Amino acid sequence: MSKEHFNQELIQFLNASATPYHGVATMVAKLQKAGFQPLSESESWSLKEGGKYYVTRNESSIIAFTMGKPERGARMVGAHTDSPCLKVKPQPELSRHSYFQLGVEVYGGVLLNPWFDRDLSLAGRVQYLNHQQLLCHQLINFKRPVAIIPSLAIHLDREVNSGRAVNPQTDIPPVLCQLVDGKTADFRDLLKQELIDQGHSDCQEVIEFDLSFHDTQSAAVIGLNHDFIASARLDNLLSCYVGLESLIHHQPSGATALLVCNDHEEVGSVSTTGAQGPFLKSVLERMYGTGESLTRAMDRSMLISTDNAHGIHPNYASKHDDHHAPKLNYGAVIKVNANQRYATNDETAAIYRTLCQGIGSKVQHFVTRTDMACGSTIGPLTAGVLGVRTLDLGLPTFAMHSIRELAGSEDAFELCKTLSHFMALTELPLTK
């Protein structure tokens, strides 16, 4: 596969994955096409060496793997399906001055200012009663622009360019339409009609929903020399897609190759589907057993936690340590933090650098400035649950947690090849 074809497939994946639910559904479709078989957590499993499987939880987290020999351990890649966004509140209707708006709650560490003046749509999951009074659920995506958060004109706030704080309660409820004077709107009725319009005519009453707004602008390769990929949700769908392609196209060598994409990383990962929850460990116990059997398997294993890294921004270079300032299109970034905000240690970094040297992949380092706080990933959380050696790795990006982020057009393609080699390792090159 060429870099150009890879990036076009990536763009289609990004556009189709407006929410974690849609991201997992898109991954499931690709896995099924590649011959992976579904597993259900409510049923017993009969795993065979060489078999290709996947299992989902809450339709928002997914684990996929090719089953290898237990004594070879596992080569695991981790990512997360969620992104910072604006989620619709349970009773969201706001009718003010003839405008119909929806109350929203901020999910994760959203960079709010870029959400103004964008063409927004709605997507997520809806729970409803059908005509037989059975509880059903369905994914929904309006796709078309249905809302906007208009900025306040500079004439009404002359000091805006000197700094305007955004109040998430009062400043960001999106505007959906105008109402005829005296009229109101029921959001659940609107959802019911949209479900019917999208072919789900069995919907009688919408009960609950998990919906978020998203930008309708397509992901794109941009720049004079096509240097960049611009898109919503690069953090962390970029890693989900790279891990998925690495798993599908790696050459099995006897070890288990596994991809885990958790939900709820942006809000702490403590949930049934998050990295600090039981999902991955419960799957590994079904593969290897519990207690000593699992401990022995994990000692032969390694996890690469793939999340985005902060590329050095030419307008804000002072925000980086001069010796740890990753550039876009210069390779993936080993992320290090002395206080264990990242799980990388000298052994896992050496293993990855040795792998890169062997296949000619570029690699960089990132350490946060010592006078600045450091973010974290699923890496330390997963390592803490499983006791597995872990590396934190990321692709350098700009504008992380904005409604539209920027990455290099070469980096994802190159990392995919590297992770495919990692998943195909028969043995880990461990320190003697």
Structure overview:
The chain is an alpha/beta fold and 432 residues long. The protein is built from 9 helices and 20 strands. The protein has 2 domains: 3-83 and 232-423, Zn peptidases (Aminopeptidase), CATH 3.40.630.10; 85-215, Aminopeptidase i, Domain 2. Helix content is 25%, strand content 28%. The strands form 3 sheets. It has a 9-stranded mixed sheet with strand order 1-2-3-13-4-14-18-16-17, sandwiched between helices. Helix 4 (234-249) crosses helix 9 (411-423).
- Rg of Cα set: 22 Å
Q: Main sheet, how many strands, which sense, barrel?
A: 9 strands, mixed
CATH architecture of the largest domain: 3-Layer(aba) Sandwich
Number of DSSP-assigned strands: 20
How confident overall, as mean pLDDT?
Answer: 94
Note the run of SSEs as H and E: HHEEEEEEEEEHEEEHEHHEEEHEHEEEH
Measured as a percent range, the helix fraction is 25-40%
Strand order of the largest sheet: 1-2-3-13-4-14-18-16-17
Percent strand: 25-35%
CATH top level label of the largest domain: Alpha Beta
Quaternary class: single chain
Superfamily (CATH H level) name of the largest domain: Zn peptidases
Question: pLDDT under 50 segments (min length 5)?
Answer: none
What is the rounded distance between the termini? 37 Å
Structural class: alpha/beta
Shape: globular
Annotation field: number of helices: 9
- As for the CATH topology of the largest domain, it is Aminopeptidase
Domain count, please report it. Answer: 2
